[in-house]
Specification:
The protein is mainly α. Helix content is about 75%, strand content about 0%. It has eleven helices and no strands. Helix 2 packs across helix 3, helix 3 runs antiparallel to helix 11 and helix 4 crosses helix 10. The radius of gyration is 16 Å and the shape is globular.
Amino acid sequence: MNYLAHAYLSFNDSAVLVGNMISDFVKGRKKDDYPEAIRKGIALHRAIDAFTDAHAATRDAKEVFRPHYRLYSAAFVDVVYDHFLANDPHHFTAGSLREFAAVTYGTLEEQAVYFPERFARMFPYMREQDWLFHYSSTRGTEKSLGGVVRRAAYLEESDTAARLFHEHYEQLRDCYKAFFPDLYGFARAEYGRLVLP
């Protein structure tokens, strides 16, 4: 899952939110440098990613992108899933998504002392360009697909990914619908196991 889902699946827990959002930038034993509550967010992020990768619907969604992007197909699916989450009326309206995004940026900024260097460089762009809200539009999603390419070592273009996103929109939405309720239940239970007494 991408940034919106990881923020949402932090269940309004500020320390877990930080860990969930920075996890990809914290390698190996570096996680031990963080307070316990943030380490729990890092662990939750990694559990969410493992569950996502193993789910049958995600495997189906990756097949849309795999012929062109191989191992990076999972990263494109993560972005696409955030688009469908942003438009899922069971979780957000346009107004509640905008409010959720603003609260998330504010909560993160309050704990910026814990940001790894790479996340600290990225976060101002995330906030200024309102990535979390703009997953809701196809144009914003296309920009996020382009962001995958910019961060990838061996990719050169995202136009194909954008085309595949549009051509297979209903199929990808069906994969999201089959997947996200399962992920939400798993993440809620994992959060309870990690955080709650």
